Fold each of these.
Amino acid sequence: MAILPPPIVLDSLLHQWLKEDIGRGDRTTQALFAQEVSSGNGQWIAKQAGTIAGLTIAARVFYLLNEKVSFIPLVAEGESCQPSQAIARFHGPFDALLMGERVALNLTMSLSGIATLTRQYAEKIADLPAQLVDTRKTTPGLRLLEKYATQVGGAINHRMGLDDAVMIKDNHIQAAGGIGEAIARIRKTIPYPMTIEVETTTLAEVEEAIAHNADIIMLDNMPVEQMEVAVKLIRVRNNNIKIEASGNVTLKTIRAVAETGVDYISSSAPITRSSWLDLSMRLGS
């Protein structure tokens, strides 16, 4: 189940983005409604098929501008939509509706695009034990929401930041002088129960990671045939070690990777290669 950050976290982000868009004031809307308080209603319409994510965030955008705005999703987070389908209806003061329109739509279209592509990846391996995992390749400032969208689409979150878990990558290994030395030095300082993951690209590196009791071994950019050998090696030597595959994962290759027996498949593609889902806001519908 996808979980949004609490209002104390989410609202600070939304305030920032609203201020960026509104600036010193909405010249158009405030000029039109300077002398009156007018209200209206309308709908959000999907212009293409996809998976919806972000309507609850959109509702919060309008609420922050005016608590009198009623924004009601007509589809649940993670549900599919079709072209011309109404996905939300709203009622409230025009100034709040029009000032919040762009921020609310931009967020929902972006997050729905991520959820849509994530769902396509997740469905490719839905009948296999391997789980789809996102990465830290996110837009600065949007990580919490982009990772929320991958959850909506059917993935699970990898670490949110550098403080979540230890991941020893190729540059760490090079700087430390080897996998064994890197694990030994890090294990002395990290708190319990933080895990240690090691990135490997060869079977020799896999052997070294096993020998030094890595908690998770990442098989990075390995051909499927080599990955199969690595998975069997890890399972025989230490079945408690979790195995993650990463690198060049596409909709065409993800199933073959999952069939090697890995526990997790991490990919940045659902975020970095997604396109916005086209939505529109229509007053008076």
Note: Residues 94-124 form the longest helix (31 residues).
Amino acid sequence: MMDLLARRLSLVAEVGEIKSKYALPIYAPDREAAMLASRRKEAESQGIPPDLIEDILRRTMRESYASENSSGFKCLNPELRSIVVIGGHGRFGKLFCKLFYLSGYNVKILNNHDWDCAGEILIDAGMVVVAVPINQTEAIIRQLCNLPDDCILADLTSIKSAPLQAMLESHAGPVIGLHPMFGHEITSLAKQVIVYCDGRNPETYQWLLAQFRIWGANLHRISAIEHDQDMTLIQALRHFTSFVYGLHLAAENPNLSQLTALSYPTYRLELTMVGRLFAQDAQLYADIIMSSSQNINMIKRFHRRFGDAIKFLDNQDTEGFIATFGLVKNWFGDFAPLFLKESQNLLQQAHDTAQCD
């Protein structure tokens, strides 16, 4: 099996070169789905569990997508002047600098200590990407008031309304807001989501969106207002509840090793995600959660509903709990069984990787 995997990875490099030459995306969902279906059918005919084969193939393909990055990507706008990444030594800045570089673009980096020569760096910019912490983004954008008229101005911030407005006010040329919905530690953009919000002159940056697709990303277009409304639930509320859960655990001070050892995969996965939060930058999460009154108001509404739910316990109201459970279940509709199936796959992976003493 290892010999076959080694041979497969050696072929991946050749595949990557072909995809680069013909501007093909590293991730083709239809091709992947067809291959998985074919191999599942073949496995079943030989008495092998189809899920086993799919697990092996998915893990193998993930490694292949990462390996294909080293082959580079087709450059869709070779005439573009330099791409300047402000904050290019940061986590996301480094990732996008690497991807642009692998695609054959001339990449320049502008960081805090470079501002004395910012005019020289920005004078011929074809695109400027702002990849700095949230609490610095608007201030940095408002310093970019002398960019070339045709320069594309973009940001990579996880909030969109305020940065997008700042870009529109500071620059008269093309503007686009971007939010990569993944962590900086990824090795490939295959299957990763990039949200984009149109700002101005969208016809001038369609090549950029196509370039993202070649990198393997899935694109989701949305307005800045809708984006921030959704991120209130996806990011701010979830991060805050994880913060409070971690705060509660620390205050109760259980034996964390024992708690982990006794945990069913469901709770272990939940505990893992909470612990993941506290392994990262506190300032980042503070900025995300406190970035708008909309976030804070949502968290306060959640707090009130949590208090209302406590009444079921105080009153030993089992019937009320069950009735409310049913209302929420109806609201989830067909998503409930879908999420159950997805979670079972995640829990199995968590179980497979759990370490026993």
Note: Residues 224-252 form the longest helix (29 residues).
Amino acid sequence: MGVDSGGTVRVRVDRHVLQLSNLDKVLYPRTGFTKGEVIDYYSRVADVLLPHLESRPLTRKRWPDGVEGEAFFEKNKPRGTPSWVRTVTIDSPGSTRGSEVVEYVVVDRLATLVWLANLAALELHVPQWRVGPRGRVHHPDLVVVDLDPGPPADLVACCRVALLLRDLLDADGLRAWPKTSGSKGMQLYVPVEETPGETTSAYTRELAERLARDHPDLVVASMTKSLRKGKVFLDWSQNNPAKTTVAPYSLRGLERPTVSTPVTWEEVEACRTVGDLTFEATDVLDRIQAMGDLFAPLTTTRQRLP
């Protein structure tokens, strides 16, 4: 490691030399969490995070001036991307400008993760599908149900709905793994055999609408925002191949450095307050040391939709 006259720190990661700058810059003013601590977090969580980013084109949300400053989503590789960073060029039908060709970054090594953290890419968002070694787009291998509470509903209400969803999935012979969003809600992940996006979307929509019919006081499946007050919206649209979901172990750009955190079903069952399932970066590192990667089965499990 070396430091130049301008205060830039040079480090070697995966045989690549990276220049890390402004490490003392506070990105989370409420807690004093610095850019150096962001880089340290992503470096230490890399072993469990990288398998969930592997071969998935990455959308980043960056806060160059910290979470109280302006943020922007970034799909294309940024200017100055090192030649050793893997990129893949594919159509992006979800663009606000219509279909366009995007050169995405794919995070397949620690050095890429550290490089992005140095760019204040706090949030990492990935699709439910992967790309092959030559850039071929595969069908989704994940089904995700996003639970989004409409105030005054909160994360506790999401846990109630997650347990109801688990029962429906169990009845269909499917196992799901829960994680918090790191914000207000949570997601359930169901690893599946590669399945067309139209099929995964239709299945998830039917699941959401079934639960909304059975529990209209608690659940809503409609996109109409005015219907969500006090209920949990089941966002089945996350399975549209054009959509992305915040990755497991990603930081969130909120007041505090909260993390989208895999949790156990026992924790979901026991949740009584929002704080019960709110985890910051240091909490997550402790959890990983004690529990390992609770989402590890997602990388090896494949189930067939009914």
Note: The chain has two domains: 3-138, 139-300.
Amino acid sequence: MKMRSAVFILTLVLAGCGFGRVPAPPTVFDLGLDAAPVPALPSREPIAMTFQAVPSLSDTSVIWRVGDSAAPKAYATYRWASSPTELLRQRIAERLSRQGPVLNERVSLQTPQLQVFLSQFEQVFAADGSASEGRILLQAVLVQGRTVLGQKRIVARADAPTQDAAGGVAALRQASNDAADQLAQWLAATLKPAPKAGG
């Protein structure tokens, strides 16, 4: 009986080693301040923007994968401050607003509407782990009334300075700006410039 009691107590002690330990909170990232220069483009009329994404980008996981693997992973102790969908939507709206207003809803059916669908926002490693890049893939469609004015597939890539979560976040920040600027340039080529004041 004493032996059984001793074993039971030892089991409780070993199991209790983790009791009371609170895991460290995850490190939280965002896309930082939007301080990068934007392309010099003409002013345009207001547009409305809708933004959707694949379900995997609706939570705050920082996603990575190796090459073209079909098995994406998430860092265990790193998170985005908001979902990648929301972070990128905000960044694109911020940068597009340099050329003209970006609305959540159309004022009328004649207000051009930019429909954006995000399918990739992740850190992609080389097979040997020696390098990685932030990669963003999105599809944009521009409609006015019932007319499709154009569509654009945008791929934005940026090399990661370090092969860890922080490096992937830095690369995705740069790729986010690049994706927004590609959109801005496409809109400038697709939409008529806003009339000049007094013109």
Note: The first helix runs from residue 2 to 15.
